[in-house]
Amino acid sequence: MQSPAPLDRLSGILERFRVKAQLHHSGALCGLTHFDAGEGFGYLHVLRRGALEVSHPGARDVPQTLRFDQPTVLLYPTPFTHRFHNPPVEGADLSCARLVFEGGASNPLARSLPPLVALPLAQVPGMDMALQLLLSETDHLHCGHRLLVNRLFEVVVIQLLRWLLDHPHEAGVHPGLVNGMSDARLARALVAMHDAPGDAWTLERMAEQAGMSRTAFANTFRDLVGQTPADYLTGWRVALAQSGLRERRSIKVLAEELGYANPSALSRAFTGKVGVSPREWLAKVAQDNAPS
User: Fold this and answer.
1) What is the distance between the alpha carbons of residues 253 and 241, in angstroms, rounded to a whole number?
2) Average pLDDT estimate for 262-281
């Protein structure tokens, strides 16, 4: 019997919701360095050498203080205030990038990740080559340096996401998309929904994709993802609608693509998830992005 083809759990999401990185710093950091959530960026930090103490003022979801004394990667997928404390003489050597998960709060991957993922580099196999090239580029200025460094940071993020899908409990991932994608059966259904959001996805068809009974599928999905399959599908479609609206695509075209009978049906689902109508939401996005 032929074994099933390997399942690509990330491409369908990342093709629709890109992760963008921008080099922020490379080299020694001494004294106090503050990263403010109000700036609107996530961060990826690669501790290359030295010791690093990190504090999270007022945070409840992560330890107030952490200390690292071996090469480590720290991922803050969404804006989260943190500070680096380094003695003036013993500054840590870091490469840091600002991150933006497209879609912001509606990005399904970012929403399902913990506020901080901190891993020793030795714990994530396969990252060596990308990091060697990244650190080489940050040490020497070449043509296309900044563009290449930004892309390499994005590669490192994807490699981290791969690792998280296979080790959700070690990273402290709570119920959500990443947790669901770590289950081989649920992943088949989730990938199918991601790839064809406009299809008629009944509970029975989702369960068939997973190779499970409807009851077992619904219960396992709720336990691992934290919501019902139908609720997740609606959230995925609405997130895609938000992305389409940002691109100035019409609600009519989006409704047809996302499996809704008419624009009104999509608007009702949108309002139920977001709390405001597509028109009101788009006006708020335009206002937030207007020059101050």
Assistant:
1) 10
2) 96
